[in-house]
Amino acid sequence: MEELGSSDQKASGKREREEFHVAHKIPSGDTPYVRAKHAQLVQKDPVAAIVWFWKAINAGDRVDSALKDMAVVMKQLDRSEEAIEAVKSFRGLCSRQSQESLDNVLIDLYKKCGKVEEQIELLKRKLRQIYQGEIFNGKPTKTARSHGKKFQVSVKQETSRLLGNLGWAYMQKPNYMAAEVVYKKAQMIDPDANKACNLSLCLIKQGRHDEASAILDDVLRGTLPGSNDHKPRRRAEELLLEVRSRQPQPDFSDLLGLDIDDDFVKGIEKLMDEWAPSRSKRLPIFEEISSFRDQLTC
């Protein structure tokens, strides 16, 4: 009877430990990476978590996840510069499959640090990889992950998202004409209300208030995806008030030039031509990419 009771207790304890790991979204075990996640998510001690993440990386314990998670925690502690150096220095230890997610972490870190040029260069490189067929491998979708959940992303969605980020980076320079070009291409591929608001802001900064108003009216009329979401709708209302409060005379004094390579734009336009309605309904697989690969040197 005692042995039976002891067995039940062990089974119960094992179930409790499993439930604990599931509830806190941490892996089981006692490795450096597991301890890092425990410090991060259970103890709420980010400094201790970073110490354990470093130990995990040095021990070769789930290096892909350890490096990415450590960079995220560093960003939360305003140690983004340190996180950038860590990712750039140790990404060579990570698998090929993890490189794209590490690029996304770097983009967020560059944005946090105000490293606009580095952000632009990395975004353009990722866009080149898409229209050269290196990310989606000719497939119409890929599996992405956000907040622990997996979902499917199409070529169009990812291209438009990256173009939207590139447009925002150009706005920080500030280079509103370049941002306008990029946002318009993003909207032609996969339009949404948020990018429409950003495009209208580019036009406002260039004194083109009538064009900006027309775009904002589209958002407020609900003609764009996401128009009914509270955040972009409120922003559209605020931008429309700004348009009406400004003087009608355009001011181009603060423009810094396009700073967009012609061959980069041509590469995006070729991608868009693949999706044109007049073409075949077949999704692009980039089989003819070699004919213009050498032109894409931006």
3D structure, described in words:
- By secondary structure, this protein is mostly helical.
- 63% of the residues lie in helices and 4% in strands.
- The protein is built from 13 helices and 2 strands.
- It has helices at 2-24, 32-41, 46-59, 63-76, 80-90, 99-113, 116-131, 155-172, 176-189, 193-205, 209-220, 230-245, 262-274; strands at 141-146, 149-154.
- Strands 1-2 form a two-stranded antiparallel sheet.
- Helix 3 runs antiparallel to helix 4 (63-76), helix 6 (99-113) runs antiparallel to helix 7 and helix 7 runs antiparallel to helix 8 (155-172).
- The radius of gyration is 24 Å and the shape is globular.
- Mean pLDDT is 82; it is low at 16-24, 251-256 and 279-298.
